[in-house]
């Protein structure tokens, strides 16, 4: 399957001062989306067999932006894992986004250096955080290395624009059948690619 190579951001560029956490303080609806997924993530995390003495539990947030909107969800997961396995289980949280992403805000929030939600990185021991600046349309981490992954509000970004939209700001609202069909076909191809890349990354 052909992969697209990115030299420029293909969806959107971060806005607000770098390192300010501006994104997370101005997209409150994204908090709501992630909050709705907390119970689902906790159920999934509980169902995964883990050997706390020899395993690393790796959680990936795909399309993380500055990380603030998913911090309550990840906090809940880390808290649940600590409750079940104690402090012995190493937890690795990976934040993925575009190379131009505001990763400075991400680490400022996680270190508690700027205002934001409570930080699991501050409150729990044996938790490690890294970032990946590789598009989620590519493989972001090694094969069989991810315990669980999620994306809150990012997988709707398509790899390419299949055609212009002349009657609306989004293909969802377009009344032109050809436009809707082309975007539907693009979305199907992109979703398949996303799933193939995640399948390689996930542990068996």
TrEMBL record:
<dbReference type="GO" id="GO:0008168">
    <property type="term" value="F:methyltransferase activity"/>
</dbReference>
<keyword id="KW-0808">Transferase</keyword>
<dbReference type="Pfam" id="PF03492">
    <property type="entry name" value="Methyltransf_7"/>
</dbReference>
<protein>
    <submittedName>
        <fullName>Probable S-adenosylmethionine-dependent methyltransferase At5g38100</fullName>
    </submittedName>
</protein>
<keyword id="KW-0489">Methyltransferase</keyword>
<dbReference type="InterPro" id="IPR005299">
    <property type="entry name" value="MeTrfase_7"/>
</dbReference>
<dbReference type="GO" id="GO:0032259">
    <property type="term" value="P:methylation"/>
</dbReference>
<dbReference type="InterPro" id="IPR029063">
    <property type="entry name" value="SAM-dependent_MTases_sf"/>
</dbReference>
